[in-house]
Amino acid sequence: MRAGLEALAFLLPAYGLFLLFMILPVGEALWLSLHQEDLFGRGREWAGLANYGEALARPEFWKSVGLTLKFALITAPLELLLGLVAALLVYRPYPGVALFRTLFFLTTAVPTAVAAVAWGWFLHPVGGYANRVLGALGLPPMPWLTSPELALPTLAVITAWAGVGFTAILLTAGLQNIPEEVLEAATVDGAGPWTRFWRITLPLLSPTLFLTGLLVLLKSLTAFGQIHLLTRGGPAESSMVWIYRVYQDAFFNFRVPLAAAEAFLLFLVLLALAGLQFWLLGRRVHYAA
Amino acid sequence: MQQFRRTVAGLVALALLAGAQAQQVTIEFWHSMGGVLGEATEALVQEFNKSQREVRVKSQYVGSYDDGINKLLAALRAGRGYPHVIQVYDIGARILADSGAVLPLEDLARKEGFDLGRFLAQPRNYYTVDGKLYGLPFNSSNPILYFNMAAFEEAGVAFRPSWSLKDLEEAARKLTKKDAQGRTLRYGLSIPIDSWFVEQISYNSGEYFCNNENGRKARATAVTFDNEAAVAFLDMYARLVREGVAANTGRTWADSQSLFAQGQAAIAAYSTASLTGVLRQVGNRFPLRTAFYPYVGQRNGVAIGGAALYLLKGFPEAETKAAWAFIRFLLEPKTQAKWHLATGYFPVVQGVTELPEVRQAHVRQPNYTTAIQQLLTSKANTASAGCLMGAFPEIRQYVQAAWEETLRGKPAREALREAKSRADQALERYNRSVAQR
Amino acid sequence: MRRRLQGLALTYLLAGGLSFLLVLPLLTLVSASLRTEADLYTPGLLPPNPTLAPYVEAFSQFPLGRFLLNSLVVSTAITLGVLATSLLAAYALTRLRFRGRELLFGLAVALLLVPGEVTFLPLYLLVDRLGWLDSYLALVVPFLASPLGVFLLRQFLRTIPEDYFDAARMDGANHWQMLWHVALPLSAPALGALAAVTFLGAWNMYLWPLVVTKSRELQTAQIAVNYMLNEEVARWNVVAAGAILVLLPTLVAFLLAQRAFVRGIALGGLKG
Known about the structure:
The complex is a heterotrimer.
Chain A: H1 2-33, E1 35-36, E2 45-46, H2 50-57, H3 59-90, H4 97-105, H5 112-122, H6 129-136, H7 151-176, H8 180-188, H9 193-221, H10 225-230, H11 242-251, H12 256-282
Antiparallel strand pairs in A: 1-2
Chain B: H1 2-23, E1 25-31, H2 35-51, E2 55-61, H3 65-78, E3 85-89, H4 93-99, E4 102-103, H5 105-112, H6 121-126, E5 128-129, E6 132-133, E7 136-141, E8 143-148, H7 149-155, H8 165-175, E9 177-178, E10 184-190, H9 195-204, H10 211-215, H11 228-243, E11 246-247, H12 253-261, E12 265-271, H13 275-282, E13 288-292, E14 305-312, H14 317-331, H15 333-343, H16 356-364, H17 369-376, H18 392-407, H19 412-435
Parallel strand pairs in B: 1-2, 1-3, 10-11, 10-12
Antiparallel strand pairs in B: 3-14, 4-14, 5-6, 7-14, 8-12, 8-13, 9-10
Chain C: H1 2-33, H2 53-61, H3 64-95, H4 101-111, H5 116-129, H6 136-140, H7 147-157, H8 162-170, H9 175-186, H10 188-204, H11 207-212, H12 221-231, H13 236-256, H14 258-270
């Protein structure tokens, strides 16, 4: 009993705040998603699953789901690949490695808003360097953020750029955890660097790679700031990803209950993915030790 | 004794001061004017606060128009924390009237004996909902054309104050400059992708943007933005983009503005309120002239854009009176003149353009008169009153998406029809939701 | 030996190339921030007539000092709060025996996944009901506890060998004392990592401060960037200068505490 009370004292600050500022609002969002009201929040009445039904019946919603998938499927592999290359270049010591580590990990310290401004300028239709470079190569300028075909891939590249530092850090740690002796043994057996990488490094790294990939996927499913600052979901709704649709419906179209339903559906997907991640983590506890 | 008397005098002064303090009413004012416009707004507030001692206006910049209306709706939802006076963009007029939270300006004006006849017709018409003026058209603008006169001279195109869409298209082609590989060096035309320009081409060609005569005869129940003028406008723009004559700089006005200011687009369309900023950006790169917004068929007249100030209900009598005093100050011709000259928004009451300081400024920079001339020569009818409907912010998104679809190669009529079906649904839902009250 | 040198040269080449690509967008931003409005679109990475005028302009147009100070205050308060609440909870979750312990831990894990956008509006209404809108309270209090913090520290505390605690218990220490004298000093690396990650996260908050603050005196550096994009969007040199100024504090913090950052991310991301 006393132990219980003591535990309560230790747990109350954190869990009290969780209850008040996370659980209650999630509950309220769920509650809201089961109701109907006008845009001023008046005349709230029970609607059952009507909002969910409407969300799932809307072609726009499915378009957003598809765009989210496309966005994630460009962002995640690209970020993973760049992060892996970066990690492979800096996980072992050599003169100057500290400098490259700093440069590779740097994007972790760049706030989203600053990243958006930097890229907004980099891809600027008039003064942007990206098009300058293309022009110097004799290529026509590209409508990076203004064409429906290019906007989403461009945003995915920006997101991958912003996340490279994060991925590189995780993968560097993973690579450093691979026992040196295994690689040395392979060298003695006459395996070249290429063979060592494919036969030993990559398989040993694969759990880390997989988990990092899952994390990157989770993050890319809720990317918001850069879209808000750079394309606002356009052009022609080509970057209206799931989370942006939620924002748009709640804060633009003033349809809060519908937005709450869409948000809750997204929450379920994230929860499922995270569940997968933890299940996998559970299967490789030896790594933590 | 001397000491004592001084103390008493001090106390009395203190008490008086405290009394004055107690009588002073503070009202809150939310606005969305940033940058140059924000400075001008703050200057007006300061001047009002200095001009008298009864009322103190506490002004707050609450972010973009969208941020502002969102903060207001959230506050209304919570039932508290909203300001006495708020600035809301043009297309929020129907929503604000439907909210039931706004004190119609017309009621107050009648009570306080302010003659509504002093307003210019279009601003007053725009913000009149169900026969009543709801908001004060504080910052009113309309769209105008911006010309790079150096390019005009080079290409041998003559300036004209008024343009049909066809003539504009021809001029844009002539003004376009390409290199040997066919890459565009200077575009003929650049218009940011904004529904506002589609709305205005409809009004200026005598078409409605929504039914029931722009929602002025009865509540609008469907959009009519698939009208001939809008179709012609979007088809033309898409055609010119494909030919490399018109630029596609996306939805951001500033990107189009830098293109124009750099001399890489010869004609552009922006708001009158952009004039100060564009002039500064252009510097002395080239001479700039402005002209009326184009039309299809016959020129009818544009509607006003910009935003209005609304007084909210639910405050003590003294505070509402204080808010009215502020509004009254903003309507003074002298205040209107300052506002007009600092921002390029045009005056909304009569008798301002005759003031000597305004006349002098207009002689120095005649481009500032274009918007006023355009307004004065517009027909005042339900088309130029502008469309009044709910869900307008959402519907604008659909129009902009349709514009972008046409740039992708979809015929404008088809793109606008598809947008219409979504817009009609949104409008129907909006009307149903507010009708339940 | 020659092979080794060749390998090193290749590494430098690849690493240099990748670094350049990664840093390029930031370099162009720096370049823009050092240009006059007239030179803004002149080609080349180096500004033709370097000037600090955009920085002066950014400072005079926006109370950037105040914005940065606010960000600092808010981020520091959140960081300290998260460290305290997380350590307390993590200690209980590892060292105390009570019913529902695993369940509570599972809850923290589930909460890790709630996207902020889901709770945005209800949270706003709640903060309003509490009368906190437009105050530091709204910026700080809802974030004083972090599921990530609880998760991370709990995982770390589990790796501290039992012996340390046993020794303290022999000396008659109660849980508070063990927390203070054993758990706290031993988890310094984890706390440092958590502090770095939390500070960065708090500094980066964007949508929330935008919505809950109205007075300029309360606004944070991220909103400053948003406002600059809204208000001065045509003057990219000023926007760029403002963005650089907002970037500097996190950049400096990152350079100074790189180890802690790296550790924090590696721990939060992987340790199972």
